[in-house]
Amino acid sequence: TLLYMLIQRAGTGTLPPPGFTVPPWEMLSRQWDTIPVPSSSTVICGPAIVTLGHDDSEADDVLPNLREDVDNHIFGWDNESPRRTFEVAAFRAEWRPITNREFEVFWRKNGADGCTMPGSWVYEDDEVKVRTMYGPVSMETAQHWPVLTSYDDLLAYARSKGGRLPTEVELRLFFDTYEVGHEGGSNTGFRNWHPVP
Q: Taking burial as the number of CB atoms within 10 A of a residue's CB, which of 52, 101, 127, 165 is the most buried?
């Protein structure tokens, strides 16, 4: 969330992280251009039983025998307790996030109908660029990156494709079923202080 907020303000006084060099965007862009498109754009998940949350009582944190127990302690926010189980029906999901280029095409076609320009984009030199912590980059460079925009705009995009956004439980099932962590070849990485392919 913090990175998302910083990117929304990038170029308006937010400074890049000290000690980091500007990524070689053009070279990286050429690499991203070579990533093959998945053989199928969607996958079917479920039906399944999904568990969310945990049974971590905040009151236990002050008990003498648990106060220093870091190894067996589960960290969670108060809205993650108690553990809950859900039945998830089968659903179809896209393999990868909506890209800047895909959303740009939609936005240019539908912008006048209530779809706003993402806050992570900026007009500069008469063109749309994508904000980064190092300053704006061209849409050509950022075309494969996942778009950072509002829920309402993502919902409008999904509906225009005949779909919808996944529920939290469906998303959890997708993440638990497929290798989507950084080490597993995530469909979105956060290298270079920005979500990239």
A: 101
**Whole-number Å distance between alpha carbons of 29 and 26:** 5
Alpha-carbon distances of 89 from 145, 163, 169, 191, rounded to whole Å = 30, 16, 10, 34
For residue 80, the SS3 value is helix
Distance CA 82, CA 79 (A): 8
Task: Please give the angle made by the CA atoms of 154, 89 and 42, to the nearest 5 degrees.
Answer: 50
Q: pTM here?
A: 0.81
- φ/ψ of residue 44, rounded to 5: -100, 130
DSSP H/E element including 155: helix 151-160
pLDDT digits (tens, 9 = 90+) for 173-187: 998 888 765 555 554
The secondary structure of 175-191 as a DSSP string is: HHHS--STTTT-SSB-G
